Amino acid sequence: MSVETLSHQFAEFYDKISSWEHSIVKGSGLSPTQMHTVEVIGHNQNMKMKELAERLGVTTGTLTVGVDKLEKIGLVERKPHKKDRRSWLIVLTEEGKHMYEQHHKFHQEYTREISSELSIDEVKALSKLLGVVLRGM
Question: How many CB atoms lie within 10 A of CB 130?
Fold first, then answer.
């Protein structure tokens, strides 16, 4: 198999996941970026702005604008960091937690759907390969 083929498969896989994600997010009233922010906070719990910005691949300035919007609609709130007075933690509100849990269920259902045609050994192999790829990123 050539690098060209693998590159095409990665691009196609990304496009399909992205298209699915956009279709799910469309009904939420949030942009895909806003939903992704809620999702990252939900997976990691309370996060410092800098950590969240790094995880999302944006600057803290860009993130500040996004967090302001999410705070305005009641999905996140800023809380002072107990150990670092210069830092703020970004946490999900109850409404934000509900939005995260609902979205996370869609991800689990989609994963079940994708893996339903795979054997248990294929699912294990796919998980192992994804782990290797993600560690390399």
Answer: 10
